[in-house]
Amino acid sequence: MNDHVRRNTPLFPIGIVQKLTELTPRQIRYYEEHGLVFPTRTEGNQRLFSFRDVDRLLEIKAMMERGVNLSGIKEIYELKTYSEEPKQPKAPRSHDMTDRELRKHLRKEVMMAGKYSRPSMIQGQLSRFFD
DNA sequence: GTTCTAACA
DNA sequence: TGTTAGCA
């Protein structure tokens, strides 16, 4: 289990992403249509977003609030060939991360990803994923 | 109850 | 972008 995998693992249905980003499902789906995020699908065709998708949605939201339109945002990302995750140097781990360790790290990431959301909402959702 | 697609007073 | 309709 490495950082790249954690950031790209599909974990959240659109409802959770909505609360984490304060974007409407309509906007989130619309941004996907324009190739700004790439959620995977479950067997039932429901979207599952990764931390990376959430991070990007937060960036998009920030840009929109600063007056950048969809076309402008698309151009910015298209120039970056979508994946620009900082390469993680191979960590010399002697063993794989335990489930407990993974949960601890994921919890930290959710805190980060949802730092712009209302605390009450974050807390309410955290209980659905951790302990 | 939640999410999905498509469409528009 | 909002919102509603009809499904899964």
TrEMBL record:
- Name of the protein in question: HTH-type transcriptional regulator GlnR
Q: Gene encoding it?
A: glnR
A molecular function (GO) held by this record is:
DNA-binding transcription factor activity
User: Transcription regulation as a keyword?
Assistant: yes
Against InterPro entries, the record matches this protein to:
DNA-bd_dom_put_sf, MerR-type_HTH_dom, MerR_fam
Give the matching CDD domains: HTH_GlnR-like
Q: Which residues form the HTH merR-type domain?
A: 11-79
Glycosyltransferase as a keyword? no
One Pfam family matching this protein? MerR_1
- List the keywords (alphabetical): DNA-binding, Repressor, Transcription, Transcription regulation
